[in-house]
Amino acid sequence: MPFAQLYVAEGRTPEQKKVLIEKVTQAFVEAVGVKPESVWITVQDIPKHAWGVGGKTLADRG
Fold first, then answer.
1. Please, are residues 7 and 17 in contact by the beta-carbon 8 Å criterion?
2. How does the average pLDDT of the chain come out, rounded?
3. pLDDT tens across 17-34, in order?
4. Which segments of 1-62 does DSSP mark as H helices, in order?
């Protein structure tokens, strides 16, 4: 049973997350030949002030 944890900056809509889950599931199906119902995925929203890139938070980067 594949399990994927996806971390994204907050602000994605439920519809965007649904599409992301569908596409990642399909990638597992195509890449490793598992059944879609065996793929487990979590999507974690990370506040922009808690995620940093290049010495700045995503909130500061805009």
1. no
2. 96
3. 999 999 999 999 999 999
4. 14-32, 58-61
Catalytic residue among 2, 14, 36, 47: 2
CATH architecture of 3-61: 2-Layer Sandwich (3.30)
Query: CA torsion angle for 47, 39, 1, 34 (degrees, to 10)?
Result: -140
Angstrom distance (rounded) from CA 35 to CA 13? 26
47 annotated active-site: no
Q: Mean pLDDT throughout 30-59?
A: 97
d(CA 58, CA 18): 23
The SS3 assignment for 48 reads: helix
Amino acid letter, 52: G
Give me 50's structure tokens.
């808690």
